[in-house]
């Protein structure tokens, strides 16, 4: 296990020492995270979440439950082309396998293959104050991104009920497996806080000898926020209108090189890491540091007396090399439909085993048994 992986997992490792003897006993963790199926994953997804899922898998204790889901129901909060969505769901599953997630170790599944999410989602709706949902920041940003508009220009009348209650369903995604640890990006912190609030509300309202839901902990994984190549004040996004703003996991080396060459920087001589005043250069340095697993300030010192041209060439080379193996695996796995169906079916079966037990207790405590 690498030092980086050990340090990351130790931040949310729960051990205690027995009263008798010195042997450490591991408290079982349930780790859960998800990704939307829409659009091909980009470099920000890979460096910000997906690669860390693989590290969590490698660092986990054998008795931990690891669940990684493709959240098809969440995708429906914005209009989708059915044929494209169907294809994207399988491509996303192939991507998760290509980057190194192992279906023999992790439960990899389509969220929409398990109806327990919807049932608990409705029950969470019945616990969630509308005022809290209206204070969520993500729904407005999603509409703005999809329409290439500023958040201040978004008309709230465009908000559909599904997008408004998105956080309640996300809470259900987590609580239906009684997840203890959730590795998510900083933009999802508000949703996890709501999940903890709803877990406490249920435990308080439906009292029993033992609380049903644990309060899930945010897993702070060592990731760098990868920003748009065309607007380095915004994060890299699958839904941004300008395709040159992101590097897709399926981009060819020539496409990657062209996008990096066209990345927004500045006219200041030399390269320094200054996210506030020089966000474009800082973003490229962050990408290079993430690809080479180095400290970004250490990387920046190598380019103090050079220009953006040299930096961009090195970033492009590092990204091409980073994606070489997962791209090859993706091309192979996406054609193995029988295998993909087998993985999806088995993942759904294992997920359902865990969620069914939770829902049995939920129904009993609510008087719905």
Question: How many strand units?
Answer: 7
Widest β-sheet, arrangement of strands: 3-4-5
User: Could you give a short account of the major beta sheet?
Assistant: 3 strands, parallel
How many helices in DSSP terms? 15
User: Helical proportion?
Assistant: 40-55%
Family: Belongs to the class-I aminoacyl-tRNA synthetase family.
EC number: 6.1.1.2
GO biological process, one term: mitochondrial tryptophanyl-tRNA aminoacylation
GO cellular component, one term: mitochondrial matrix
What does this protein look like?
Helices cover about 50% and strands about 5% of the residues. The protein contains 15 helices and seven strands. The protein has helices at about 5-10, 45-60, 70-75, 80-100, 115-125, 130-135, 140-145, 160-165, 165-175, 190-205, 255-260, 280-290, 295-300, 310-335, 335-365, and strands at about 15, 25, 30-35, 65-70, 105-110, 180, 215-220. The strands form three sheets. A three-stranded parallel β-sheet has the order 3-4-5. The protein has a two-stranded antiparallel ribbon with strand order 1-2. Residues about 1-25 have low confidence and may be disordered.
């Amino acid at each position: 296990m690498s030092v980086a992986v050990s340090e990351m997992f130790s931040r949310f490792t729960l051990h205690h020492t027995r009263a008798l003897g010195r042997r450490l006993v591991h408290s079982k963790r349930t780790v859960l995270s998800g990704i939307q199926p829409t659009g091909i994953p980009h470099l920000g997804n890979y460096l910000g979440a997906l690669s860390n899922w693989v590290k969590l898998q490698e660092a986990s204790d054998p008795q931990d439950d690891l669940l990684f889901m493709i959240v098809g129901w969440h995708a429906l909060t914005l209009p989708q082309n059915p044929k494209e969505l169907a294809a994207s769901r399988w491509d996303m599953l192939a991507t998760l396998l290509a980057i190194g997630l192992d279906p023999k170790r992790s439960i990899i599944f389509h969220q929409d293959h398990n109806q327990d999410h919807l049932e608990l989602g409705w029950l969470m709706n019945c616990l969630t104050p509308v005022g809290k949902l209206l204070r969520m920041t993500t729904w407005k940003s999603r509409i703005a991104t999809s329409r290439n508009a500023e958040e201040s220009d978004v008309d709230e009348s465009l908000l559909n009920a599904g997008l408004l209650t998105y956080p309640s369903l996300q809470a259900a995604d987590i609580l239906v497996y009684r997840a203890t640890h959730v590795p998510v990006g900083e933009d999802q912190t508000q949703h996890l806080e709501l999940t903890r609030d709803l877990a406490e509300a249920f435990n308080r309202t439906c009292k029993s000898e033992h609380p049903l839901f644990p309060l899930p902990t945010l897993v702070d994984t060592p990731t760098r926020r990868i920003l748009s190549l065309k607007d380095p004040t915004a994060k890299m996004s699958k839904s941004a209108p300008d395709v040159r703003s992101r590097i897709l996991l399926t981009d060819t080396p020539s496409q990657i090189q062209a996008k990096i060459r066209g990345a927004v920087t500045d006219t200041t001589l030399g390269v320094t890491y200054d996210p506030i005043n020089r966000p474009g250069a800082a973003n490229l340095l962050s990408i290079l540091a993430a690809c080479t697993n180095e400290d970004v300030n250490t990387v920046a010192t190598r380019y103090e007396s050079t220009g953006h041209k040299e930096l961009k060439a090195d970033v492009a080379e590092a990204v091409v090399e980073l994606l070489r193996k997962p791209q090859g695996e993706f091309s192979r796995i996406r054609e193995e439909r029988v295998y993909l169906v087998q993985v999806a079916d088995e993942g759904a079966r294992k997920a359902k085993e865990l969620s069914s037990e939770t829902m049995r207790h939920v129904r009993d405590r609510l008087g719905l048994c």
